[in-house]
Backbone:
């Protein structure tokens, strides 16, 4: 492989990782939510709020020099984008609160409430982000592992990513361990299979579902924050661009298995990016087709998965989308 080919391949892999990370973060959180038996279609809205919240937190910390006022040493250690990451997760979690209250405590229709949350999140993000349009953003710093990041090909791909990329890997591993290796994970899955039986056995269905929805909101917020802090470090309206819906499809694609979510996220990331690289290489592809390609791939994958109903039904939470009203 020539140096030019290796450089091009490195660039492709780096951009695929960047495109897949927000999908992986949001889909992993939604998987936990759905495993508890709650269907939250508001991922798009929570990602939008995370994107504007993360950008706003990083921008305000940097422009007001809050960290320098607290401690010059702290300002040297903590990058403003790290504060943005926390702000993104918090905004996503806060956005999930009204959804959780309505569908868990008031047993509202989960589909209608989730769609409303998407509209609310997109509208609120556009309103809150209006004052940040055109302002410079704070990019998440790349990790620079001495002696490893400079290795040809593998160096920048494996050791030159930002912290949220590595966090997404740890998140998948942690969620997989939690769901299938811990008693609390078993309880969460049991609630998703039969909330009435779980309640009769003494499990706190409402508490577990609240925690799951808040966790999913934080993960969706991180996915949105990645867009405004790493993917394109700026705030623009509609920058989530349907990724929340792709994240929802990824959960079904993965049949509610965390490791399969990672595979699906990187496949969709590759679909998103490879078309643009092909166009840059001289292959004539209409830009409209490239924009539609990820969503077309989503539809095709869902159609293919639906053909194998037995496999799809094997891991689907039995009470997914059904409200739970504890016996009085």
Residues:
């Amino acid at each position: 492989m020539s140096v030019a080919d290796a450089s091009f391949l490195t660039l492709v892999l780096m951009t695929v990782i960047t495109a897949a990370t927000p999908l992986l973060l949001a889909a992993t959180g939604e998987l936990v939510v759905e495993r508890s038996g709650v269907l939250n279609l508001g991922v798009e809205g929570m990602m939008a709020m995370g994107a504007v919240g993360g950008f706003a937190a990083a921008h305000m910390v940097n422009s007001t020099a809050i960290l320098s006022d607290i401690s010059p040493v702290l300002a040297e250690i903590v990058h403003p984008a790290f504060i943005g990451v926390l702000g993104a997760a918090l905004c996503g979690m806060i956005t999930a609160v009204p959804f959780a209250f309505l569908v868990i405590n008031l047993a509202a229709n989960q589909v209608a409430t989730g769609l409303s949350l998407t509209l609310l999140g997109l509208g609120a993000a556009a309103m809150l982000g209006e004052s940040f349009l055109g302002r410079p953003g704070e990019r998440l710093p790349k990790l620079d592992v001495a002696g490893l990041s400079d290795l040809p090909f593998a160096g920048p791909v494996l050791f030159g990513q930002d912290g949220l990329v590595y966090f997404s890997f740890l998140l998948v591993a942690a969620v997989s361990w939690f769901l299938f290796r811990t008693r609390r994970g078993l309880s969460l899955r049991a609630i998703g299979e039969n909330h009435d039986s779980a309640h009769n056995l003494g499990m706190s269905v409402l508490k577990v579902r609240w925690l799951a929805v808040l966790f999913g909101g934080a993960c969706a917020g991180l996915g949105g924050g990645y867009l405004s802090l790493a993917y394109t470090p700026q705030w623009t309206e509609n920058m989530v661009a349907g990724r929340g819906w792709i994240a929802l499809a990824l959960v079904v694609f993965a049949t509610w298995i965390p490791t399969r979510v990672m595979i699906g996220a990187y496949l969709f990331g590759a679909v998103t990016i490879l078309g643009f690289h092909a166009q840059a290489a001289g292959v004539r592809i209409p830009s409209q087709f490239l924009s539609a390609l990820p969503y077309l791939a989503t539809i095709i994958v869902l159609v293919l998965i639906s053909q194998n109903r037995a496999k799809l039904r094997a891991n689907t939470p039995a009470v997914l989308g059904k409200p739970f009203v504890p016996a009085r």
User: Anything to note?
Assistant: The radius of gyration is 20 Å. The domain at 3-315 is CATH 1.10.3470 (ABC transporter involved in vitamin B12 uptake, BtuC).
